[in-house]
Amino acid sequence: MSLASWFRWNEPPSRISQRSPTEMVVETLMMELSWQIKQAEKQQRERENEYRKIKTGVDYGWLVSYPKHSYDISPGERLQLEDMCTKIHPSYCGPVIVRFRQVVAEYEPEAQEVSRLFRSVLQEAAEKIKEEEEAKKLARQWNTKNRTSLSLATFKSRSRISPFISDIKTISEDVERGTQPTKRVWSMPEFRNTK
């Protein structure tokens, strides 16, 4: 038995599983949420330590050991947030993260409040996406209407107004001849198709 077959060096490397863009968006946004929760916990602990230090005048922070991650969102809430993340288009993933970080920096929330802020940012992004889709839909409708109106404009440009042609009848000719005028409006010029 050869050594190479024993270690399986001849086998091709396993391929990375192909994930859909939606799955990648959900994973990225949820990782950002968990990171922001950890950061909020860390800032909350630092604020508590500063408060204790000011209150007691002694720093015992070096004695305290904190759990790595104490707050976690409930499974139901996680599923709701993941469902909301699926509605985010991949091109909006970056702007959503940037907006979420701005909101977190602005409000400096506690760990329990981070998921609510995340939900509000996702709702804001979903509404923006919906508005842009409606605007695109209206633009498409407008473009199709413009195409039909352009075809009418080309039809109208083919017909020429000829106001000085000699066979144009006027009311004064009918009065001079003593005939009844036809029902046509005589003040309108006659339209002819030019070839």
Description:
The protein has 195 residues and is mostly helical. It has a domain at 21-147. Helices cover 63% and strands 3% of the residues. It is built from six helices and two strands. The protein has helices spanning 3-7, 21-56, 75-86, 93-107, 111-158, 171-177, and strands at residues 159-161, 191-193. A two-stranded antiparallel ribbon has the order 1-2. Helix 2 (21-56) packs across helix 3, helix 2 (21-56) packs parallel to helix 4 and helix 4 (93-107) packs across helix 5. The longest helix is centred in the last third of the chain and has 48 residues, at 111-158.
Task: Give the proportion of residues in helices.
Answer: 55-70%
Please tally the helical runs, counting DSSP H or I stretches of 4 or more residues.
6
**Topology as a string of helices (H) and strands (E):** HHHHHEHE
Structural class, by secondary structure, is: mainly alpha
Biggest sheet details? 2 strands, antiparallel
Biggest β-sheet: strands ordered side by side in the sheet? 1-2
Gap between N and C termini: 91 Å
Total strands: 2
Query: Low-confidence segments, ≥5 residues, pLDDT <50?
Result: none
What is Rg? 37 Å
Name the beta content range: under 5%
Mean pLDDT: 78
- The shape, in one word, is elongated
Protein name: RD3 protein
Organism: Mionectes macconnelli (McConnell's flycatcher)
InterPro entries: RD3 (IPR028092)
